[in-house]
């Protein structure tokens, strides 16, 4: 079993409330989303593992059980071409849960006309594989988002 923790401080809102049909329809995979605090912050690793994908707006960490967890910082933020995002680790790096991965500013994302709501998704998983999914309430970095059986 893998416990996936929040990479961000903010409010859990659930995938259904993400303003993007690919995420809200769980087409990428099941999980939840965080509406982050509007201040410069660091997104941290949600699990211990290997960074297998790294972009300014998104990263995937695969844990020892082979579970891939996508953290996507905001919606349509790929269109910002990396502006306002600072990578703190690289693809191929080993990370520990809670380790800073990307520095960004959700308020700047919002000012650029994009939603800062950030999906955290269990890749290649079924909804039935997840338990205790946080879909509401305040959350801190490292707070439990869901378990993956």
From TrEMBL:
The keyword Transferase applies. Keywords: Kinase, Phosphotransferase system, Sugar transport, Transferase, Transport. Residues 20-124 form the PTS EIIA type-1 domain. Gene3D superfamilies: Glucose Permease (Domain IIA) (2.70.70.10). The keyword Transport applies. It is found in: Cytoplasm. It holds the Pfam family PTS_EIIA_1. This is PTS glucose transporter subunit IIA.
